[in-house]
Amino acid sequence: MAVLVYAEHDNAELKKATLSTITAASQLGGEVHVLVAGTGCEPVAQQATKVVGVSKVICVDNAAYGHQLAENVALLINDLAGNYSHIIAPSTSNGKNVMPRVAALLDVSMISDIIKVIDSNTFERTIYAGNAIATVKTSEEKVLLTVRATGFDAAAAEGGSATMEKLDDVQDAGKSTFVSEELATSDRPELTSAEIVVSGGRALANGENFTKYIEPLADKLGAAIGASRAAVDAGYVPNDMQVGQTGKIVAPTLYIAAGISGAIQHLAGMKDSKVIVAINSDPEAPIANVADYFLEGDLFTVLPELTSKL
Amino acid sequence: MKALVAVKRVIDYNVKVRVKADNSGVDLSNTKMSINPFCEIAVEEAVRLKEAGIVDEVIVASIGPKEAQEQIRAALALGADRGILVQTDEKAYPLQVAKILKGIAEQESAEIILMGKIAIDDDNNQTGQMLAALMGIGQGTFASEVKVEGGKVNVTREVDGGLETVALSLPAVITTDLRLNEPRYAKLPNIMKAKKKPLDEKTPADFGVDMTSKQQILKVTPPPERAAGIKVASVDELIDKLRNEAHVI
Ligand SMILES: Cc1cc2nc3c(=O)[nH]c(=O)nc-3n(C[C@H](O)[C@H](O)[C@H](O)COP(=O)(O)OP(=O)(O)OC[C@H]3O[C@@H](n4cnc5c(N)ncnc54)[C@H](O)[C@@H]3O)c2cc1C
Ligand SMILES: Nc1ncnc2c1ncn2[C@@H]1O[C@H](COP(=O)(O)O)[C@@H](O)[C@H]1O
User: What ipTM was predicted for this assembly?
Assistant: First the structure.
């Protein structure tokens, strides 16, 4: 039987997390099909047909799916489920919202946030904020998973030639409606797929200091900007910048943490980065335990110096 | 209307977790246990809805060992009215928990069901969504704002791109994110009062639920350790290392 990947996109672009999920899907055995549900989402479906490893793309273009309301999308996936041994999605906020709902409709358990495929029924995932790794085996006939993008390389976006099927399956559960959204816009790379991330913590003291000290360094490095929970809670930066157990999981080539203590919940979101730099005035800060390079100092003098010398 | 809040007993978020030497799991002996932080936010939100006159009764439920009474009592001390412990010594997986919660929500005719977005032990982030599916009702996950008006609830959700607001008809399930509220501290008189609030005991069988899951944890291992890093003395040294040793800039 085949594997169904529920694609993450914004009706214009297939998101990179989908490519990592397709890699995970191709390790499960069987053909890989991709479901693109949305409004005006055909360009995304076209992109998905080119991804290496995908044999079929199912495009469902309807207003009911424009905002990926879980109540509607879950019914759609439930309709398609019969043909698949595995149904998987990226562990994005959307994948996390929809997939458990599908699992319950199918009366099966689900495995969240896998970081490794051992075999088609056995997976590794982190528990306790990354303090432990569990190997989980499932005997469900239908295996539902979400995939942590940092655990899998992205499948090649070009070179494939999948077929496309347009499907007309309108499911409106009538339980929810989209009201509004406030999406962050930025010219910087996206946090979860950036090569370099510069993050700031409580020590920044206010939002203006993010602009004054973190942004110039990020600009110089072409980096995305992240933050600790403390910085988000205090309103220095919006919630979509939070890195950690309950924020975004990142694993860039270079992660620079300025004025972040390194609480376990923060480490859970970034300790798989290739190189970690910490700038902290406290040499005992726990971030020192994971930092490859630790520079003790006041970020208000270190960051401008670093920015100007790069 | 009634609010149902699901609270899970988990290892306290401040405790350093240790994997058992035989890789069978995490060592929980003599560790401090608490209400899952996200569930505490859910309790706080329910109590605020009661204080605002929208909810008239807050019921707290937990599925777990006898000791989970402590977490129910803690929730009662925050202002919830009564508790239900569904006692089991088996590991509680999200699908089974959702089935039990469905039983409770239906028995109680709860209109608003508040839960955490994630339990910080198993890090599943599933149960609320599953419950909403089983009940065939709407879900407002990762909530940072909840407004109940005229048979509907508007939930602002923390999503990857920023914030999204959805309107749900009631009943609905809401799962909490960190910034929904800041839970109060229980005052001593309230802790005393909580001891006298009703706490029912049930079993999974009362709701026709078998706790056996088709999932099995084969082993639990510590994460790979990062090699120890070095201290650099200056910005110049840092730049040199990043360029010539790590080759990342
Ligand atoms: C359920 C739960 C979930 C959580 N999820 C997350 C999560 O997803 N992500 C997350 O980040 N946190 C999360 N947390 C919070 C986490 O426990 C910490 O509270 C938080 O990460 C601390 O943020 P911080 O390091 O910015 O602040 P602090 O811990 O206050 O650290 C500030 C650091 O800045 C240093 N400093 C101060 N002044 C200067 C200066 N001038 N120059 C240089 N350094 C300076 C200090 O030495 C200190 O190390 C969660 C907590 C809970 C309970
Ligand atoms: N054993 C349990 N008892 C009560 N509530 C639970 C239990 N397990 C999960 N929940 C609820 O579901 C939420 C999400 O948990 P999870 O899906 O396991 O990450 C928790 O914050 C609780 O509100």
Answer: 0.97
